Input
Amino acid sequence: MPVIATSSYNNHVSFLYKNSHIATIYAGKFKKFPAPQYTREVLELEDGDFLAVDYHLKTNTKAIILCHGLEGNSQRTYMNSCATYFLNKGFSVFAWNNRSCSGSMNRLPRLYHHATIEDLDAVIQFALTKVEKVYLIGYSMGGAQTLNYFGRVKNISDRVMAGVAVSVPIEIKSSAESLKKGFNQVYMKNFMFDLTKKLKYKAKQFPDLMDWSKIKNIDGFDYLDDHFTAPLHGFIDKEDYYFKVSPARSLTNIQKPVLIINALDDPFLGEDCYPNSFAEKSNYVYLETPKYGGHCAFPFKNEVYSYAELRAFVFIEELSQK
Output
């Protein structure tokens, strides 16, 4: 029932941005949007590590919590754009950084992944000390964290109202396979460059933890996730990791409204990232699949904001009126 068959974005996208790569690269590399005036709080975690949270308090009644994508951070353009849009609508904003993404390397061997919901929960609990209710908005990996939070955390606070997941890999393996194809490999290589640098740093922090010499063999997600991501985070291998952290394992347990916005032309997403049949039967999972939009892009012609934050706001406002 909550499948949104026709997306209004299809009627507002310019001809140029109907090319998914142009839309994606423009949003990721060329579009600029300044960060709001944030206060940074460093949260000390129970396991001895830390998280950096940037926040702007506009009100103590309602806030959005923004979750960034793989190798992103709290001040990426898509985060800044969404934050400013919601601040202008009277919301407070909390934009958090996954471990190793704040500009300071984290203390422990583990980094982050699509189901690091304990860290997201720490941010939520921090936000709830300052505002009455929160809504989660996640991009790509951050969208996966958002869906996994709603589907895996038991007894979620009544003050955590709903979520929006943008350009989210519902099945991580399907996404990883998609990034091996054609021009999509350019995006994968960018990820490999950034993640390899972090692994080299970890090799210096923990030289005896594993065979770090394998770093030189990293040529894609298959090798990276099999030899580093999986063992660093307690998984058997990449197949075990892909299966267990995918939001597809979480959807059936979601009991609060969530909106998934996945463009059909998203170069990061495979065919298993569009759970149409599930959403048709769900009372909580809304699925919108615009024909265009690219990955974390959805640009409008002559508009500083993207469709993603506008749609997220409408979804949240409609829920508040029910």
In short: Residues 184-205 form the longest helix (22 residues). The chain has a mean pLDDT of 96. Residues 37 and 74 are 12 Å apart (CA to CA). DSSP finds ten helices and nine strands in the chain.
